[in-house]
Design brief:
Elements (H helix, E strand, L loop, with lengths): L7 H16 L3 H19 L2 H24 L3 H17 L3 H25 L1 H8 L10
Length: 138
């Protein structure tokens, strides 16, 4: 997305989503606001394909993200900080900075998930099966 062409209304939509995220207290609400923040950026980019991918990933990982918010010491604070970094880069019209901040955000989430699965192998099979069709019997 060329953040240099961000309209004031699109930027306001992203800011509002970030502010709502900062105000939430329950993990479920925070996860919902996380999706809202990411979808505001994708809607601003007017990328329907990316929105479909985001929607699919979000619906497939909501329980895992709620669990991460419960068991991780600072998942919520880090997420809000990462979102703030992404927002500031978008506000500055810095597409490379927004991309870099987004990469840091995704890498941190993946790092948490990898570490969690390494320390909880019994959950690994369940997590890795997310999005796969259920087995059927004939």
């Amino acid at each position: 997305m060329a953040v240099q062409r961000m309209t004031p209304s699109k930027l306001a939509m992203i800011r509002e989503a970030h502010e709502r995220h900062r105000m939430m207290s329950s993990i479920e609400d925070l996860v919902s606001c996380d999706f809202e923040f990411h979808s505001a950026i994708v809607r601003a980019a007017e990328n329907d394909t990316l929105f479909s991918i985001l929607d699919c990933l979000s619906s497939q990982t909501v329980r895992l993200r709620i669990w991460g918010g419960i068991v991780s010491d600072n998942a919520v604070g880090l997420t809000i900080d990462h979102h703030g970094n992404i927002l500031r880069a978008i506000e500055a019209g810095d597409s490379h900075g927004a991309e870099a901040a987004s990469l840091v955000h995704v890498t941190a989430a993946k790092g948490w998930l990898d570490a969690y699965l390494d320390s909880h192998p019994s959950h690994a099979a369940q997590v890795r099966s997310v999005g796969r069709p259920a087995a059927t019997t004939v």
